[in-house]
Amino acid sequence: MVQIQSSVDINAPLEKIWNIVSDLDAEPKFWKGTKEVKNISKQGNIITREVTIAFKDSKCMQTVTLFPKEKIQAEFTKGVINGTKTIILTPKEDVIHLEAVWDMKLSGMMGMFTGMVKKHIQSGTEQALQSIKQEAER
Prior knowledge:
The protein is α+β, with helices and mostly antiparallel strands. The protein has helices at 14-21, 27-30, 114-136; strands spanning 2-10, 34-43, 46-53, 59-67, 71-78, 81-92, 95-106. The protein has 3 helices and 7 strands, in the order βααββββββα. Helix 1 (14-21) crosses helix 3 (114-136).
């Protein structure tokens, strides 16, 4: 498994940041590696969805669990990525610490590209957090 971590401090109310990160349909706006999202079902705080990622337009299935104003955990259940992406919001003094943690590997023959893909995911994650910060601090 490969772990990728990135974080940013945002000078905005928790509620505003949560509204941005929990708008799962808007994910492609911030996460450039996510091309399209199609929600399949929703039961309470759990959403099942199909995600088309930029890596060869691959489709992945995810189960996303929302923990309101705390974290969002996306588990990749089918496709080229196995593992999780977790978004964590932590209030600190006068800012909100926003962190993204990936714990993943590429499945099957795609495993040989893990190093290359890791760099893209790291860069995409850093860019996404900066975009979320800009949106929240407007």
